[in-house]
Amino acid sequence: MNRSTKRCSRWTLVRCRLGFDPPHQSDTRTVYVANRFPQNGHYIPQRFADNRIISSKYTVWNFVPKNLFEQFRRIANFYFLIIFLVQLMIDTPTSPVTSGLPLFFVITVTAIKQGYEDWLRHKADNEVNGAPVFVVRSGSLVQTRSKNIRVGDIVRVAKDETFPADLVLLSSDRPDGTCHITTASLDGETNLKTHYSVPETSVCQSVSQLEALQAVVECQQPEADLYRFVGRMTVTHHGEEIVRPLGPENLLLRGARLKNTKEIFGLAVYTGMESKMALNYKCKSQKRSAVEKSMNTFLIIYLIILLSEAILSTILKYAWQAETKWDEPFYNQKTEAERNSSPILKFISDFLAFLVLYNFIIPISLYVTVEMQKFLGSFFIGWDLDLYHEESDQKAQVNTSDLNEELGQVEYVFTDKTGTLTENEMQFRECSINGTKYREVNGKLIPEGMTDDSPDGSMPPLVLHIYILQAWFFSFLFLFLLTCCMGDELLFLKAVSLCHTVQISYDQSDCLAVGGDPFSHANGFSSSPMEYYASSPDEKALVEATKRIGVAFTCSNGDTMEIKTFGKSEKYKLLHVLEFDPNRRRMSVILQTPSGGKVLFTKGAESAILPFTTSGEIEKTRLHVDEFALKGLRTLVVACRHFSPEEYIDVDKKLNSARTALQQREERLQEAFSYIEKDLQLLGATGVEDKLQDKVQETIEALRLAGIKVWVLTGDKHETAVTVSLSCGHFHRTMNILELLQQHSDNECAEQLLTLSRRDDHVIQHALVVDGASLSLALREHEKLFMEVCKNCSAVLCCRMAPLQKAKVVRLLKTSPEKPITLAIGDGANDVSMIQEAHVGIGIMGKEGRQAVRNSDYAIARFKFLAKLLLVHGHFYYIRIATLVQYFFYKNVCFITPQFLYQFFCLFSQQTLYDSVYLTLYNICFTSLPILVYSLFEQLVHPHVLQNKPGLYRDISKNSLLSFRTFLYWTVLGFCHAFVFFFGSYILMGEDTTLMGNGQMFGNWTFGTLVFTVMVITVTLKLALETHFWTWMNHFVTWGSIAFYFIFSLFYGGIIWPFLHTQDMYFVFVQLLSSGSAWFAIIIIVITCLFPDVLKKVLYRHLQPTSTQTSQVMRGGDIYRLLPVSQCWPNSVVSLCHSSCLSALLFYLLFGLYCSY
């Protein structure tokens, strides 16, 4: 080796050890058991992550700069920062405090909130990272902290403990080296799952044996897929290297919990942030509501207004100063530096000064108020008892509060079927065996056409006994003949009871424990204390059905499966499991029968089984499957294949070769599965019923009346899906059902779409049924045509859908020219992509795990709760935040427009109209609380009325309350009120400023304070006029805000504060309140502003009432019993409250007028 090569290798080693090079430079990682590395000088250990979990966002050192950077990425915050810096750099009419203090308040509040949330994450991380664990090191069991686990360590985990890292199972206390775990914290599945160790390590059950173990694990680099793991273990045993494949069944994931096993030993392969649980902490794509987009548009418009006012004021200033007497009056002579300054720089300086003067037209506190409203308002969903499911003890939960108002804008609902519209509680109903249909009655299979002769309780005792004896005799005779004949019926029942991944929960460690058989069953008439657990409800229902009939699955002990066939025990050796996957849509097991033969049992969808069958009653079974589907049953087809010894040797070789491959393992396994699952003998089919959830039909009808279109996206076959759609009200019997099914080419699909789009019978409602294969063709080149057909249909059903196809359909509607708001709802992992793609994603807390719930924006226990979530909560959230946004812009127009008008009367000298304290506190204190409380409690209509009249949802659809017309109304109203404030006060004081009885004159601060006082009262009362639902809190903050302004102004201007540099407002407010003319002006101006508003509301309500306003007028006496006095009052009471409160305020103002005289 030459010198340069040595230097390069040494430098690579140094960089690797210092951590400059990435730790993963290959597609695989090599892990040495107990970290016993090869003893040669050329080996460079790979660097892996430590076992610390870091969910926090900040550290002590980077919190301030990182948090500030993130906050100033928001345009409004950055804008106010620029304004604040301009105030510091140039001579501006207002103090930097007026912009700096609100900005500091907003930044500080947000930083404290985010810092507290991150502190909680740090606290949780420390608890996890500091948890005690036991590790095998130096020949002994050592206790350490979880964060100290390294890749290659052998970790011991005891019963009911969680796994601290991703471990490859080495051994357990069970002789076969298996263990049971639950992954509820990962995917929500509570069933027991069996994991396996390789035979060479399963015997190492002591620390000394593990210390002597020489093994190496080669596996893929970390990835987020919980259900994928590819690796192999090379064990050196007596000088011989034995290679064993490793898959998901060998990997114990961090966060899972050990059950029914005393202890296990595992090898850490993925640690810390490289564990699969941590890799699934990925952030979801940020969703933005339509209200937020409208708000940003309004901000841009107001920014244009601000720039226009600043430019206009600057131009008018120089136009005014064109005359010498105004450019340099005798009382304000320019300095030499001012005369020689650059005109361009002076123009820019004046423009920036006006920009600072008018900058309050952009409301910085709007963002804080909106965030607080969304955060606090989201609690109401969880507190709603109508959304609480008592049976499962589950309440609605909010995973993101940013989309609350979007619930009131939904136009399309995409829903899964199984577990969402149905209960996902399967009951075995019928089956087809060798071309004959059977149904289960009282634990017996009754052929089609026969009736159950079981007696009922109304029969005489003697006849009852005779019936029982007859029933027992004939059932025993039937079972005896069935057992003797060993026909296809028994083979079918054995296939169903053996082809599955069901686990059994029982106390005994062995199914044949001393002291009795854990399963006591005779002819299906006795029960067993054991309980089945399955990841699929279908599998559990089928195994329980065969148990009732007489073929019971009793034990699964490693590679042995035991069944009892009418009391006779049979043991089968489990050779291979061909796992289910969405592409094959079937699963299989290869077993060794008690007689030594090798047999394959497989079950799956009829489209995945029937094409590969070569014998059996294929056509009859296909017909029966279609009949089951028409009844709404979920169907599975069962088949088998018997292997000769030579065939099995070939099959075993192909499977082992594919499973030990590190590269393209999935592809090679698919090839092996296809080779094995062919030439099948058809045994029969099963029909399992999945009942509809409660009130599904009423919910779908309510959504339809609300103008929301419902699409059902399911993986079931189209006959089953259509039957369920008809039963749940998604399809009506009067609808004309259009079909786009079994299209095999683009041209064929295009022709069918054209045929469907040319239908002229628009009077009839249409429903569309499309399958996954046809949908793929339609989305490839005919999207517009497909969308045209869909939009002409009242309901759409997509069947045989893959998960990604569901997301594509949602994206297709979401990105259409109309840009409708979409909502997706589902309960399984196959619905996650659809839920994340839609504008609003809702997870059902069902029985297919919690992946949908974890990836959703909202989670509810039942589909029926969707109606109230949208029609009530969505309605409330939307009207609240829509009014909040409009009101904020309105009150800021009222606030800053008088400042702009004042410049026409002070030669555009940039003199401020308001005191700097008033500028600072207007949005923070004087007008903030009333709108916040309004946005939390406002209800235009009572919840019961909204649920009983779903059509009211249409009144707020398509973002109608934030349309440009509504925005223009609020903006023009703000300008009108501002003109009244300013010119009303000017008319009063323009000619005669001696408003006091002693002739004392008022100045500009008194004028500005009068305008400000009128403005605070008017904008607060304007919100009171908009309020329909009054609570004690509304009264407190509304009248309290006005009172607080008066009290604060009295204290602020009535006392000399030593820490203030100047105090222009000293005694100004006291003198203003001492003037009867000022009190008179306040009353007149407030009434002038609000009276047209009241008149408009009265006229519109009586002449052109909306359906919402009509619903507010409740008729009859019964409805009032629905309204608790503490929660809601009738309209007449609300009106009385308005009148009383306004009268009280008027009396207060008149009393002040009287006292001033």
Automatic annotation (TrEMBL):
> According to its record, what are the GO cellular component terms?
early endosome; endoplasmic reticulum; Golgi apparatus; plasma membrane; recycling endosome membrane
Cellular location of this protein? Answer: Early endosome; Endoplasmic reticulum; Golgi apparatus, trans-Golgi network; Membrane
Please report the record's description of how this protein sits within the membrane: Multi-pass membrane protein
Matching entries from InterPro entries are given as: ATPase_P-typ_cyto_dom_N (IPR023299), ATPase_P-typ_P_site (IPR018303), ATPase_P-typ_TM_dom_sf (IPR023298), ATPase_P-typ_transduc_dom_A_sf (IPR008250), ATPase_P-type_domA (IPR059000), HAD-like_sf (IPR036412), HAD_sf (IPR023214), P-type_ATPase_IV (IPR006539)
Do you know which CDD domains this protein is assigned to? P-type_ATPase_APLT_Dnf-like
Enumerate the spans annotated as P-type ATPase A domain: 133-192
Q: Which residue numbers delimit the P-type ATPase C-terminal domain?
A: 853-1106
Q: Which GO biological process entries does UniProt record here?
A: phospholipid translocation
Q: Which residues bind ATP?
A: 416-418, 539, 580, 603, 634, 714-716, 800, 806, 830-831
The record places domain P-type ATPase N-terminal at: 45-99
Q: Which cofactor does it need?
A: Mg(2+)
Q: Superkingdom of the source?
A: Eukaryota
Q: What is its main location?
A: other
Q: What EC identifiers does the entry list?
A: 7.6.2.1
Q: What class of enzyme is it?
A: translocase
Name the Gene Ontology molecular function terms of this record: ATP binding; ATP hydrolysis activity; ATPase-coupled intramembrane lipid transporter activity; magnesium ion binding
Quote the catalytic activity from the record: a 1,2-diacyl-sn-glycero-3-phosphoethanolamine(out) + ATP + H2O = a 1,2-diacyl-sn-glycero-3-phosphoethanolamine(in) + ADP + phosphate + H(+); ATP + H2O + phospholipidSide 1 = ADP + phosphate + phospholipidSide 2; a 1,2-diacyl-sn-glycero-3-phospho-L-serine(out) + ATP + H2O = a 1,2-diacyl-sn-glycero-3-phospho-L-serine(in) + ADP + phosphate + H(+)
Keyword field:
ATP-binding, Endoplasmic reticulum, Endosome, Golgi apparatus, Lipid transport, Magnesium, Membrane, Metal-binding, Nucleotide-binding, Translocase, Transmembrane, Transmembrane helix, Transport
The residues that hold Mg(2+) are 416, 418, 827, 831
TM regions (residue ranges): 75-90, 96-112, 297-320, 351-370, 462-482, 917-937, 967-989, 1001-1024, 1036-1060, 1066-1091, 1133-1154
Q: Which residues form the active site?
A: 416 (4-aspartylphosphate intermediate)
Its subunit composition reads: Component of a P4-ATPase flippase complex which consists of a catalytic alpha subunit ATP11B and an accessory beta subunit TMEM30A.
Name the protein family.
Belongs to the cation transport ATPase (P-type) (TC 3.A.3) family. Type IV subfamily.
Job description of the protein: Catalytic component of a P4-ATPase flippase complex which catalyzes the hydrolysis of ATP coupled to the transport of aminophospholipids, phosphatidylserines (PS) and phosphatidylethanolamines (PE), from the outer to the inner leaflet of intracellular membranes. May contribute to the maintenance of membrane lipid asymmetry in endosome compartment.
What is the designated name of this protein?
Phospholipid-transporting ATPase
Identify the species of origin: Oreochromis niloticus
Source species taxonomy = Eukaryota, Metazoa, Chordata, Craniata, Vertebrata
